[in-house]
User: Fold this.
Amino acid sequence: MLRSGVRNTLLPLLIVVAACWSPYGFAGGGLPANIRTVAVLPFDNETPTPDLQRDVTEALRKQLAGKLGLREAAENRANAVVRGTILRYDLDIPIGFSADPKRATTARRKLQITVDVSIIDQSSGKPLLERRGMIAEGEYGEGAELAGRKQAVEKLVDEIVRGVQSQW
Assistant:
């Protein structure tokens, strides 16, 4: 019979070892096992803000590699392709200001980015993720639109990654 101290040490160890041999894994998020590479194509940009396309594309490339473990590849060699359209970029939406005209006004603003996005499995042609009208928001202080845009792009990309991960 095992002493209580030894048994208390062995039980957690056996659980960890058993978990390592489990046939289930989390590699690649909720993507099929054949999806190891991705091509993130520049999004079509229907807004008057040309830098937005670069910001979204670069953030997606970085996060798909970092959070899902996908390697970047050319479109014709990638297992999956990400396509999208930036539909709207609404900025300068007031969310906070001082109503007292004697005090300096410190305004908070918000902006919204609206996109359509799809991730297609190249081997089957089936969508791994398809979202229409995704909206991400960012807040910024007076004159700091770029900080708000960065925040909104990060939220947008996080939502896309979460969407892929939830495709179990």
In short: The two ends are 43 Å apart (CA to CA). The chain is about 35% helix and 30% strand. Residues 64 and 138 are 21 Å apart (CA to CA). The first strand starts at residue 37 and ends at 40.
